[in-house]
Amino acid sequence: MYKSLILISFIASFLGVDMAMAAQHGHAVPDGYGVVRIITLPGEAEISVNGQPKGSSPATGSETWGIMLLPGEYQFSATKDGYDAVTKKVFWFAIPWPRDF
Fold first, then answer.
1. Do residues 74 and 90 make contact, with C-beta atoms less than 8 angstroms apart?
2. CATH number for the segment(s) 3-92
3. Is-cis flag, bond preceding 96, omega within 30?
4. Rg of the chain over all Cα atoms, to the nearest angstrom
5. What global pTM score does this model have?
6. How far apart, in whole angstroms, are the C-alpha atoms of residue 97 and residue 53?
7. Is 87 exposed, middle or buried (0-12, 13-18, 19+ CB in 10 A)?
8. What is the per-residue DSSP string for the chain?
9. What is the pLDDT along the chain (101 residues), one digit of tens a residue?
């Protein structure tokens, strides 16, 4: 019997907080892109986007796995031995964010 793997995703597109975090780590979020952040419980699950392997989620729930993507529709999958695979479709679009906010 497999245990359930819980995939929680949230989107932080064009938010000042995400831009500041990226800058602190020496990364820039290119114009037109946003950042999708994912948490899996338990951690260390293999993450795929549109069927392409992209890496593993962090071991703890206090950290997130992130990817920069253009607006559109994406299918995220999380798999881990001994757990049911989870797939979630996400569609998001850019909303201009005031630069002086």
1. yes
2. 2.60.40
3. no
4. 14
5. 0.71
6. 31
7. exposed
8. -PEEPEEEEEEE-S-HHHHHHHHHTT----TT-EEEEEEEESS--EEEETTEEEEE--SSTTS-EEEEE-SEEEEEEEE-TTEE-EEEEEEE------TT-
9. 567 766 655 545 444 445 555 555 566 666 777 778 888 888 899 999 999 999 998 888 778 788 888 888 999 999 999 998 888 888 877 666 555 55
Residue type, 87: T
Instruction: Note whether 25 and 63 are within 8 A (CB).
Output: no
